[in-house]
Amino acid sequence: MLENPENPYAHNPDAASKNPPTQSFAVNLGAGDLIRRSATAELPAPSRQLTPVAKLIDVSKCIGCKACQSACVEWNDTDPTIEENHGVYMNPHDLTPNMFTLMRFSEWVNPDTDNLEWLIRKDGCMHCADPGCLKACPSPGAIVQYSNGIVDFIHENCIGCGYCVKGCPFDIPRISKKDHRAYKCTLCSDRVAVGQGPACAKACPTQAIVFGTKEDMKKHAEGRIADLKSRGFENAGLYDPEGVGGTHVMYVLHHADKPHIYSNLPDHPIISPVVVAWKGVTKTAGLAAMGFAAAVAVLHGLFARANRVTAEDQENARRLLGDGKGGRT
Amino acid sequence: MTAETEKGDAIAPGNPPMVHRYTLSKRINHWVGAVAIIVLLLSGLSMFHPSLFFLSAIFGGGQNARAIHPWFGVILFLSTIVLFFQFWRLNLWRRSDLAWTLHIGTLVAGHEEKMPESGKYNAGQKFVFWAQMLLILALFCTGIMIWDRYFSGMTSIETQRLALISHAICATLVILVLILHVYAGIWVRGSFTAMIRGWVPAAWAWRHHRAWLRALIGKPGPAE
Hints:
A: alpha+beta, 11 strands, elongated
């Protein structure tokens, strides 16, 4: 195990674009680094606190080349289907179990300037500090969160129910029709665990995607936002939504006052109150009601007399039937 | 078949005299539904609460529990449709059921002989019947929406969230009604045998379903 558990190359925003270290590192994301585990009530306290990491996506620097998508496919060894062209640059048509990140293109006419702006957003898991997928997941250990902020799907524990899809405020997880397990961006947890940055950040030719500690990424974003503001984008800002406790994938947006123009990025993402009620009061009250009813039934069964036919009933029935005549209706 | 009785109801004289209560097709369908609902209960509860996830081991793991649950839901739904047509007529609510319901405390205290006479199905059974009909219909509709493998793309995620919470609430209610139903079947001695063999002693019919017994022999009782 490393003395310093954090990514040694994290303190530089362009770390991911540089060549990785050649010395070998111990894998530094283990069971002791979990801060949340799906459907697990009593998780042992993590053995240490890792430095929170973040990926920062500067949409103003993105040229839409999809190198990130290719790198993602390459590193994660997925096999996206070759699809039809739908008349837009976006390809494939949506996130899939084999495509963890997707460039979404939208053409937006700025009402203030009457300029057409081509907005390109790299969609994928936001790695929420309060992950809705993990809250919704019914299978112990199928979704975990590490103390560095990465939310990861542990596929061997996944039962394929699709609850994570309902829990996610960003419509990210996809269930494979082949192996019936959920897939999404891992923030390259396997690369981060050995001191490297995510594959997409490494591949990005304009460094629109950078990776490092969350603190550094926020600082880096400040510089970018100041630059955008100086160039007339007065509403430029950082997308690190509070409603989900902040995210470990953040965007620099030139129009941070209206995230929805970037292919429906939620303005104020929160875990749906329906999901909160379902996994909260419904679950608790439902289990209590069932337990109570079963207990009452058992107690009544133990202490109350059984409702059985008495000698009097037999006599009365005989009298009613009289001569014993029966009849078929 | 009269207003108080249904096809297959008959008295067989003998010692003791017996009454035919449930036809073979009703009994088979009842137990098909019962097996389905038990499988659904165990697999569903494993996904309902983490403390019950261990139940998925009965089916060989969470993947299997998740995969078979909706198929057994289809079996239960089909069985329920058949059951509806087999049982609906004598489960229609009647004015006399109100009096029975108001005396429910007398029944629970163990004095059924002091209860207003009931027909083939008493008000409690009618409640179980209609509650399960409506809840199973709701479970089927919401279940289809969250059957990810085949129907995931057909409704919006927000709709699926509402379907999930409705499914969980309806399932809880079904289980509560099921506990009532199973308990009543055990507490009222002879009920279980009735659903296995189809026959009950006439004295059993006198005690629990007197108006039905009277209708069968064509002698209206004092209350009717």
